[in-house]
Amino acid sequence: MPMKTRATALNPHNRFQPIVTDREVDPDWYNDPEDDLNPDTLATEVIEETARSIISRNTSPDVPFDQSINPYRGCEHACIYCFARPTHAYWDMSPGLDFETRLIAKPNAAAQLREELDKPGYRVSPIALGVNTDAYQPLERDQKITRQVLEVLAEYRHPVSIITKGALILRDLDLLAEMASEGLCSVRISLTSLSNDLKRRMEPRTAAPATRLKMIRQLSAAGIPTGIILGPVIPFINDHEIESILEASADAGATRASWIMLRLPHELDELFQDWLHRHFPQRAEHVMNRMRDLRGGKSYDATFGRRMTGTGPYSDLIRQRFTKKARRLGLNLHEEEPLRKDLFRRPGGEQMPLW
């Protein structure tokens, strides 16, 4: 019996634990809706962390940003494929059910951001918001940390790009539109499927596909440069939807699109394969065989330049299909206008040198 609001019933030990302390869910009891340990009803625990720094620096050559902010660790969206799941192991928690139910919030994020932007040596570069875990996950409704961070960025006139699948972004439409009018903001909506059934299985606590298209429509109408990230592409699960997702997104007002192949680092391999055998048992081996074809015989290859798309005939086919359809729809026709860095000013009017 599939779970409705959690993607996984597994809580495997993390790779840093010397002793296995699994909190794996027994299939005989996770079907019981009255059980307090049922993943569907397991309460979300929020742990507050006082961040000593908030801007993370990136040196990966295949990621299009060098600064990011993640207001939360863990994500209640519970996407089974999330590449960030293994990062929960750094906090001595499981990338499985813990990642979905034991979340870390950084309530001092905005204050810490202000402190870092005020440092004399700070150099302006667009900040990517919510790239590891979604900044607009359900927790944000009460915490409002993302909103506070955006208010600081707007005050400093600092460029920001956002990746999300959370409808709560529309709450901040006023602020985002104001920033976009000065060339300070862009948004990418993550869209994996147009199927409500697949969405419920794969991303149980995310906005419905129709809602995400509405998000694109409203963001675009407000003058905010909006695109999509189509992914992850999963062989034999959602790869047949590439053209329809691109078409629906373009119709909604998206002007740019990119794609990414499924990645299965560390503990995510076990979690995804468990999910795959529960939801698509007849396709499971086909999916994993194709994944190994993409990754040189392994479930995952972390090599820069290959990890995002894989290699080989299947990867080439996906790229060709995506590029052909995107071109026909007028997506990615021109170079994206870079977000402005020259407007940055500290409160009080001090303009920041760009180099």
Overview of this protein structure:
- The structure is a single chain.
- This protein has a single domain, classed as pyruvate-formate lyase- activating enzyme.
- It has 355 residues and is α/β, with parallel strands linked by helices.
- The protein has twelve helices and twelve strands.
- It starts with 26 loop residues before the first helix and ends with a strand.
- About 7% of the residues have low confidence.
- Helix 3 packs parallel to helix 5, helix 8 runs parallel beside helix 9 and helix 9 packs parallel to helix 12.
- It has a seven-stranded mixed beta sheet with strand order 2-3-6-7-8-9-10, with helices on one face. Strands 1-5-4 form a three-stranded mixed beta sheet. Strands 11-12 form a two-stranded antiparallel sheet.
Unreliable stretches (pLDDT < 50, length at least 5) are 15-39
Tally of structural domains: 1
Q: Give a count of the beta strands, DSSP E runs of length 2 or more.
A: 12
- How much helix is in the residues? 25-40%
**What does the average pLDDT come to?**
88
Structural class call reads alpha/beta
What is CATH's topology name? Answer: pyruvate-formate lyase- activating enzyme
Bulk shape:
globular
Radius of gyration of CA atoms, rounded to a whole number: 20 Å
Q: So, CATH architecture? A: Alpha-Beta Horseshoe
Domain Radical SAM core: 61-298
Keywords: Iron, Iron-sulfur, Metal-binding
Pfam families: Radical_SAM (PF04055)
InterPro entries: Elp3/MiaA/NifB-like_rSAM, MJ0683-like, rSAM, rSAM_sf
